[in-house]
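Appendix B. Worked example

We walk through a single record from start to finish. Start with the input: the chain for N-acetylmuramoyl-L-alanine amidase, Paraburkholderia podalyriae, length 240.
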Amino acid sequence: MADYKNQHWTSSHTTADGNAGDVISVSVNDRAATRQAIINRVRQGGMNFVERSDWAAHKNRSERMHDDWNYKRIAIHHAGRSFSCGPAALQLQDIQEMQMDKSIAPSDDIGYHYALDCFGNVFEGRDIRFKGENVHNYNTGVIGIVLLENLTEPGEGHDGVAKLQKFLGAVGFARPPKVDERQVQSLTAFVGILREFFHVDTLGGHREFPGQLGEGKICPGNFGLEIVRELRKSMGLGAP
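Next comes the structure step. The output line below is what the pipeline stores for this chain.
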């Protein structure tokens, strides 16, 4: 476990009640306070933030999880080819169950730190004080954000799922996802907020990190990767 007495100080912004109002600039070396300050900052920015308890997250295996901090990289994911815009809380519950109940190398909690739905709402995933489980061999110092949508083109992946999706698209039963502008705007604002708290210098789509496996070679899809590249360019961040 980390030594909280020797951690780096972080500049954060908060208000007493977390609502819009005069912003108080504080310096804290308390990670719990920083987590709350991030939540407050999102709400002050006019976005809706949904904490774990409000989407009925399952209990994690905290005794097996590892502390992490001093984040320098952000990894962007999509929810996968079986997902589409829908009830975000139910999707997060499904993702958490799927990741924690895997027969091989089950996760100790949902792997992503945050999720954004198609309406731009920000959801808390894994507590930011714990190392994520979302990028193979690259989890230390990486904040994982998942966009709750399938952001692949039909046929992307060159496997059975891709062939089925391509066929359904050809006969008019499936269409390429239309990325909601509210989701993009929220992601842009949220990445900016995270940069107020951490010295982030790298932004990448999941598959841009070297050596990814399985669905990681597709994630966040061609549409998702286009969003990542535009955001990276506008913020002057580096690629993995």
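Two observations about the output. The helical segments are 31-44, 88-100, 160-170, 181-197, 221-235. The chain is about 30% helix and 15% strand.
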